[in-house]
Amino acid sequence: MRNFRHRPRGRSFALVTTLLLLTLYSSAQSTFPVNGVADVREGCYAFTHATLVKEGGATLSDATLVIREGLIVSAGTGAVLPKDAVVIDCSGKYIYPSFIDLYTDYGIPAPESGRGGRGAVNPIDFFRQPAQIESNTKGPYNWNQAIHPEMDAAHLFNVDDAKAKPLRDIGFGAVLTHVKDGIARGTGVAVTLANEKENLVVIKTKASAHYSLSKGSSTQSYPASLMGSIALLRQTYIDAAWYKGQPYHEGTNLSLQAFNDEQSLPQIFEGSDKWGDLHGDRIGDEFGVQYIIKAGENEYQRIKEIAGTKASFIVPVNYPQAMDVEDPNDARFVSLADMKHWELAPTNPGAFEKAGIPFCLTTADLRDTKQFFANLRKAFESGLTEAKALEALTKTPATLIGIYDKVGSLDAGKLANFLITTGPVFNEKTSIVENWVQGRKYEVKEEAWKDIKGQYNLVITSATGGSTTVVLDVKSPTAASVIAKDTLTGKFSYDGTIISLSFPAAAGGAAPAGGGMRGGARGGGRPSAAMHLSGVVNGDTWNGNGTDSTGNLVIWTATFAKATPPTPDTAARKRPNHVGKVLYPFDGYGWDSLPTQHDLLIKNATVWTNEKEGRLPNTDVLVRAGKIVRIGKNLDAAGAQVIDGTGKYLAPGIIDEHSHIAAFSINEGAQSVTSEVRIADNLNPEDINIYRQLAGGVTSSHILHGSANTIGGQTQLIKLRWGADDEGLKFRNWDPFIKFALGENVKRTTSTNNNRFPDTRMGVEEVLTDAFTRARDYERQRKAAPNITRRDLELDALVEILEHKRFITCHSYVQSEITALMRVADKFGFTVNTYTHILEGYKVADKMKQHGSNASTFSDWWAYKTEVQDAIAYNATIMQKVGLNVCINSDDPEQARRLNQEAAKSVKYGGMSEEDAFKMVTLNPAKALHVADRVGSIKEGKDADLVLWSDNPLSIYARAEKTIVDGIVYYDIDRDAQLRKYIVAERNRLVQKMIAEKRTGSPMAPATPSYHIELSCGDHDHHDGLLTIDEDGDHTEIANTTN
Amino acid sequence: MKNIFIGLLSLFLLGLTTAQAQDDVYPAKPDAGKLFITGGTIHVGNGQVIENGTIEVDNGKIVRVGADITPAVGAKVVDAKGKQVYPGLILSVTDVGLKEIANGVRGSNDFQELGDFNPSIRSIVAYNTDSKIIGTLRANGILLAGTTPDGGTISGSSSIVQLDAWNWEDAAYKMDNAIHLNMPSFLPRPRRFGLRFGPTQTTPDVTKEALAKVEEIKAFFREAKAYNAGQTHKEMNLKFEAVKGLYTKQQKLFVHADQVKQMLVAIDFAKEFGFDVTIVGGSESWLIADLLKQNNISVILQQLHALPTTEDDDIDQPFKTPAALQKAGVLFALNDNHEESRFRNLAFNAGTAVAYGLTKEQALQAITLNAAKICGIDDRTGTLEAGKDANIVISGGDILDMRTSLIEHCFIQGREVSLDNKQTQLYHRYMTKYGLE
């Protein structure tokens, strides 16, 4: 009690006393030997007369903060100063709890190529490069190299002051750090940013567990797609639960054990993108986990869906840089979406606040942490409140990982992690002076402690005693001028203690006695002589010594005379930032509000029914609540929106049986059997090809896995509901399908060193037989011992096929493989629902008919590889004449918008009737996909998926004028004309805005073309434009893979 | 005699049983006699249409075209009443005959040579008249093609071939009509990683690299010019010799370019060297159509059935680019370089241009007369006019629309050529199998 002169009073003081007692009686001992004389300090400091910022942003003025042994002893008003406290007068200063960042890899070494041979990520090329089937990680760990939950950041962590300082400089005092690598990444450790031994800075080990869908440095082939990553993480949850039963054949798996052990920790998932966040949240929902989600920069584009996750978020404040778009030929390749995102990205944090989503802020993703405050201020201009930002940097992060008892506020007992600032922390003119971490001072901008701006009387005295007085006008710690007859700008610096000043000696100026300062710079030619002064600051009086322009010694004194009038905060003067609208999808052709259903009456069109009525001239169709309710002449419907169909054709919407649009990844393919992956997991509802294909009369597309492997992934039928989110695209109540593939692609014909089984069509058949054999055994085992049988996502899908609950569409070309698959199917008791491509279908059409398969083919493709040498343009006609249900598909985002023309080619090749030809892209795919009860023809009761064509839809001169899905007009040729004008105007507005930004001297990025990745099955070349990246041979870290 | 018969029969059977074989499709015999194609709707190729017209052919040349021509007694007559008669279509730039199986069969490919500056490489010497692709083109009215090498900066020279020949010397219609230059790209390329989120990272200095390459190309042409101006040379330079025709305008310079910056450089080439320049590709040509016209640069548009360049572009931009060029008065041809349907949809590319702004006759001209002009063969073909080769297509209906594009007769230099091909043969073979014929 020797520190207290008076008995403390009141409850808070009682608490303080208790804590103090604990502190006082805690031992100063540690296990570490001392080399030299022990120097144990209690570090008791009292910060007086400060404005303390407490929880919720409440301020206490003229308050005192007392700290001891790295902890806060008291923070409030009226405290008695401990006798042994070093007292620091903080008049005019603010004290904040220092900030906390949950998303760092501070002190964690970059993933090495060590640990069992981890190397840099190699682009994976399914078709050519040898596969790495097994993990390179040595030891009793998981089968997959990207699953390493056993990695414990606390074991890897090293204090790294070079990394800590930039974070301290922007106000951070504690961070959560983890290994930012892999899918199951292991546990995080919460540490302070003090430059002390690791033992002292750890706040909490195993503070969190981390996940992502990026395989990172794993060199193993699987997973090679976003949907593969999702499947792997899902399977890992299942495997870990099963591992609790100590299955004998698994032995010891330290990864799964760790995975189970860390389930009770806060679970943090790296989404980093609006859709990525949702992908993670859905996995969490499936396994009863609520992730904390690390966001990206674009959640504002789908904030409703983001709020629907009910997750807390870790939000970065990184935004794209403005681009240099002055050259119109460069600007042309920058998309409107990218320019709009540049403008709207600063609204992202505010969008979280406005939507009531709990979030904290992070420095993650910043190109330079020095941008942190500037970017925060942009967020304030765009809707974020300062109070929320403060909470998001202190209390929220601390609470999320359960360390609010230690950090996050100025309360007794917590770590002495606090900032001393010259004003409210987010003000542009405020400086963080000092950042104290665990009771130790780290200087940030010490020179800002005292505002030295103002005018000083500078008296310079020469050795001979003569003196001169001039006025020194200090503008900042780095700028000052001397006012005599003229105003001379000198060199000035102030670091909090030392002053250094030099200025030219002007003609007729204040030359000290004995000086010869004549002429100066204006004199003529010779370098100007200068006065050099150096000294220290002591309150308002500075003094020191120096030399005059002739080198004679002088001494000097500067005394504060008057303050400079303050200039207003520039942030306050800024005009409000007018920004464009968020569009759905976030694309020039998107909607600013989503369209809704209306009753529609299409009048007086030639109605192409695809039913026995055939083509009905001058007929009306009435649509209500998304369904076709009446077809007839002279219909009337009050309140219905009338569309004049005179001279036009109304036809059922086109259904593309084979498409690869609207997905983030298409091929898994790292293994020959990947039935566990699902296209549905990675739909991309913002693919511009959705809109382009609506303009080609397409209303539904079957999105297939690629053809990189024999048993590919689960497919997804979608409707082209442009503007909907990924869930909203799905065709509801649909029989699930799966993609298989045979032949050259799966045996990797173009590889010269294939090591992935199979290498021949003989092997392909065995892959199929083996997979279904395993599935049958699995199903038997599961029925016999449901509790100990590990659920296998891969085999589940195959069991569904065996049980006729899932249906195959199989990429196939030559007759041998077509027949071989039918015989495998016969053996296992199921039917191959659809053969797609099927360019030699005409050779075995009778066998296919007997088996009961549908056929979905190209109209006239051939000779792009050996297995299509015998492809003929008459294929569809022959198969149709033999009695198969034949479809024409696109497998190509361009051809998909002309499928009506592709169908028309069968009129040319083989003389198919027009009505039969058109059915190949409408009713027949509906039948093949088991949805003919709802789509594919114009019939009362069916979905109103309709296209109004300007002409006979089989004619090359026909254009879709309106494309309707579920009674909603998603494409309208007139609206499209308006959108084209909008896009031109909006692009121009943003180009001008970026150029204006360039004029302000802001850092600019070069104009960066907005590339579009065209996903494909990898079967053939695609006709891509300048800005499309054919994924063939490319590999991207997360989403996109080769084929 | 019997043995010969059996021999022929087995050859015939072999032809039927191996799908590879197509050996019973023969080039037509030369026909020196007269031919009258009567009563058809004649689409001349220059915009003119003659209803109920007749074409008189003599010794492979068109001698008269008109509405009131009576066939000579005893001459061969093809009744085209109710049919559409067109000039033979021209596929201006293609790898047909050089690349048989596009992927995975290296042995079937002869379209791309090693090296960067290969002006002396000549496609004609590798042109395979027995390619199975050729028959499918004839069957769709394509009678002439510019067989073209690819790769490097200067790929070599193309030659125009007629598509009914025993060997390449037979096929040659115009040798070495153009030198092909691939303009370096000015477009920053994306890096491989992180494509999913936000703007892509791109490689720097693409413009610098491209300009350096352009300088290298210019230096080549400056030195070639000087070389070709000289009379004798101590050492012969085959590369310089190969481009001699460019300076005398006996050859054209076909510049493969899509980006505006690439095309601007091509215009500069035309100005500096006085070359006859044609842009091949030209997907962005609509942006500078007037500039192309001012500088007399012609364009061969590749594959109209393509996606727009940018996501903000009008969704039908590629379809309406021909109309933009037409409006500006640019000489342009349409082409089909679709690798999967293998070029047989040339007429339908033109049909799409009609749906988006051209007239049918303008679109036809873009695959006949305009193509002939650009390829330097318009003195001999491209229209149905007296004095030109009898390269003629007769279709049951509108050739530009797939529903009606039913080709019934084709004549190359007056010879009626076979419309049979591997695909029709396989068709009949399996129609027979299923008893459907």
UniProtKB/TrEMBL annotation, chain B:
Keyword ATP-binding: no
Signal peptide: 1-21
GO molecular function: hydrolase activity, acting on carbon-nitrogen (but not peptide) bonds
Signal found in the keyword field: yes
Transmembrane intervals: none
Keyword annotations: Signal
UniProt domain Amidohydrolase-related: residue ranges: 350-398
Pfam family, one: Amidohydro_1
PANTHER family with a match to the protein in the record: ALPHA-D-RIBOSE 1-METHYLPHOSPHONATE 5-TRIPHOSPHATE DIPHOSPHATASE
Name of the protein in question: Imidazolonepropionase
Organism: Puia dinghuensis
